[in-house]
Design a protein that fits this description.
The protein has 81 residues and is mainly α. It is built from two helices and no strands.
């Protein structure tokens, strides 16, 4: 009985190792893809924040360039009350 089990194991072991290796590789690839997605999302957010910062800087420069009376008049059109 032991001889049969040993013979069977020697025939199956390479396939079991191949399946195990494939499983480990698939899990590692999944983690890699997850990290790549997180990296891409951080980059997208940085680009959006940079664009928003540019707009805020332009608004700040425009407000600073106006004389006080013109700035009050311009900002008065933005007020809700």
């Amino acid at each position: 009985m032991v001889e049969v089990f040993t013979a069977l194991l020697s025939q199956v072991a390479p396939y079991a190792l191949a399946v195990g290796g494939t499983l480990v590789a698939a899990i590692a690839w999944g983690f890699h893809q997850r990290l790549a997605g997180a990296r891409a999302e951080r980059h997208r957010q940085q680009v959006e924040e940079l664009a928003a910062r540019d707009i805020a800087d332009q608004v700040q420069n425009d407000v600073g360039a106006l004389p006080a009376d013109a700035a009050r008049k311009e900002l008065g059109t933005w007020s809700k009350g």
